[in-house]
């Protein structure tokens, strides 16, 4: 990706350099549970709410000033700006108004309206405050999973923005309400559809990226994105963790499905091509 000449987003909160602490603390055991759950595609927010219980109060202690104008921060700001540039006209075409989310950069631990989260949970979107949370060091974890390249990391941002799009369209809230009324197996199936749709929306961003932003794609970028989608498939993660592949526990979709829906968005660039619920 050629991104350095593109604009930067103003909707960034850089909380790096600050550590979040709670009254009781999550503890190493809790972090291990969350990490295992994330590897198996379990929603980090759900696990955090379970582990934290009533510990919703957070205090931040300074660990040095947040880094300014670093490469990772600039890149993520540029990618977020490109999602703003893409989704604003797309929403307008459908007679709707796009409201930009905020991207929170953190290291270690962070407080969101959805609870307290650690870097071990990976990137996530909190619909309660309409913010995306990313620890830039997650890129190193992606490389360990075989997903490298700047477009692969940009896909992660675009996927989380996809959840914001779902939130604005009402899909996310409706799905979550329904999930609370059904069995765990049925709820997992709905979760998979939510995640695959976010992949498709990430594809729409990739489809319209050069039309609405100054970011330019380079040879191999699309391949990087598809490889990243493959790397975070439920079956891939379960196999990597040495566990048994159990479709009943899928919450994000198989590697093949994630690649297919991302590619669907990349190919067609249309919201109506991203209906994963029918």
Automatic annotation (TrEMBL):
Superkingdom, natural source: Bacteria
Broad class of where this protein is predominantly found: membrane
Location(s) in or outside the cell: Membrane
Family matches, as Pfam families: Zn_peptidase
InterPro entries the UniProt entry points to: Uncharacterised_pept_Zn_put
Bilayer topology annotation: Single-pass membrane protein
Signal sequence interval, chain numbering: none
GO CC field: membrane
Name of the protein this chain belongs to: Putative neutral zinc metallopeptidase
Organism: Cardiobacterium hominis (strain ATCC 15826 / DSM 8339 / NCTC 10426 / 6573)
Organismal lineage: Bacteria, Pseudomonadati, Pseudomonadota, Gammaproteobacteria, Cardiobacteriales
